[in-house]
Amino acid sequence: MFVVFFKQFIKELKRKVTIVFIHHGKIKPLKFNFSILFLFVLFLGWTSFTLWAGFVSGKYVDYLVIKTNCKITKLRMLFFSDQIKKLKENLSQIKQNDDNIRYLLAMNSRKIIIENYLGAGGPTPVEASTLAMLLSGKANNINHHNMAKQSFYLLEECKASVNSYSEVVKYIDRQREIFRYTPSIWPCKGIISSSYGIRFHPIFGNKIFHAGIDIANDKNTPIVSTADGVVIFSGWLYGYGKVIAIEHGHKYRTIYAHLSNFLVKKGEIVVKGQEIAKMGMTGRATGPHVHYEVHFSKKPINPIKYLNSYLD
What we know:
- The N and C termini lie far apart (129 Å).
- The strands form three sheets. Strands 3, 6, 7, 8, 9, 10, 11, 12, 13 and 14 form a ten-stranded antiparallel β-sheet that branches.
- The model is unreliable at 110-127 (pLDDT under 50).
- By secondary structure, the chain is an alpha+beta fold.
- It contains five helices and 14 strands.
- The relative contact order is 0.08.
- α2 (36-105) runs parallel beside α5 and α4 (125-136) crosses α5 (144-181).
């Protein structure tokens, strides 16, 4: 049955077909005779060519897309390499600023010792060549693994810079706090009429230990607190006359004696430079002055080293 059908199919393919092209003018009609087999082969050939052309054009489009993506990727990598370069320059400047600040602040912390010990090193030859290729624009030769390592190292340097900055800020805050609570200014204007240590008593004439210094000036000269703190005593004390004592924290305490007037009372919070009293000569005194004491760990120390030119 199949053989008969096949023979009939071949016979049909051999039949002739006439195609006539008639021109609507004086030109004679054109006639072409083709076998059905020829037309069938022509159809198959045209269909195959069309499919092949579509396949090739699709591949070419894919190639163009990939090529375009590669160019975009290269541009992005070059941009990224430029950003890495700028970031390294900024980090270098940040580190230099950090070192300068630490030098000015004389931050002798354990971190400095650790950094001095671990500060040696640098990029490996592979890392250096990777960065060189990045900066030269040779993106085709880049090892992406090393590029990722460069990014990781830069991130770690950023974290270290942030941590270092935080430490500097904490150090500055700590120093500010110490400055606020450490007696470091003159309690008043005047001249030192009696120093700290063994002296002849101005009234009794015998040798006696003087636990502070006397600063003389006119009566009612303003007396200020030499540091932030809390008033723990404001009243009369035999020999001292009117006295104010201030607790500053960090083991510091100051005492101001022979005052004429109180401007603060017990329990009041005062700040460095705030006027707390007026100079007088109450108690045992030969003239207007303030007896000024600085205590550390509840023991009197020489106030001279805690005076500066703040009020001079």
